[in-house]
UniProtKB/TrEMBL annotation:
Residue segments, region Disordered: 1-51
Name used for this protein in its record: Uncharacterized protein
Source organism of the structure: Lactobacillus crispatus
Biased composition (Polar residues): 14-24
Length: 181
């Protein structure tokens, strides 16, 4: 059914048991509750058009799920005034983000401010948050290249044409996944 309270975009929603789950615990269960404390994994940030706008890492810290590396100019799509986001409790692989209002209509990326010919060292991070190697990221002729991706790995957000949005962030860490994943 429909609920008028949802139209108010509330911070709290009142619910009552329908009696169909008498053994159900009083508190809802979220996938993040079964994740071990200290666990982390890479995530992909998706904008309201379905575009991949970057990668980050979520981690479980006590009863909280934290997210790092939200792309500049974006915020979590369901973040409330206290900074909480229900989607993090789902322990997702993709996180929805929306413009935080600071972004121009034409997106810009940190790489736009990097001089052609620049390069720097990067760490490659696997889906458990472990460093699996180091490499070099460089900007040449307005494209970003990465060297020394560890054998058996590929960029976690690489599309079928070999593009990776995380490289546009000129990152210090790049998330990778096994080639056969």
């Amino acid at each position: 059914g429909h609920s008028a309270q949802l139209l108010q975009w509330p911070d709290q929603i009142s619910v009552v048991s329908d009696g169909s789950q008498p053994d159900q615990p009083a508190t809802p269960k979220y996938p993040s509750e079964s994740v071990a404390d200290g666990t982390s994994k890479p995530v992909t940030f998706i904008d309201d058009k379905g575009n991949n706008v970057g990668t980050g890492i979520i981690s479980k810290n006590g009863n909280s799920v934290n997210v790092k590396n939200i792309p500049y100019g974006y915020k979590l799509s369901d973040e409330d005034s206290e900074g909480h986001s229900a989607q993090l409790l789902q322990w997702p692989d993709q996180i929805s983000v929306v413009s935080d209002g600071s972004q121009p209509a034409t997106p810009s990326y940190p790489i736009d401010n990097i001089t052609d010919g620049s390069s720097k060292s990067v760490s490659f991070i696997d889906n458990n948050g472990n460093v699996v190697g180091t490499g070099i990221i460089s900007k040449d002729d307005n494209s970003v290249n990465v060297k020394n991706i560890p054998y058996g790995y590929k960029l976690s957000d690489e599309d079928s044409e070999g593009h990776s949005a995380q490289l546009l962030q000129w990152p210090d860490q790049i998330t990778v996944k096994p080639v056969n994943a």
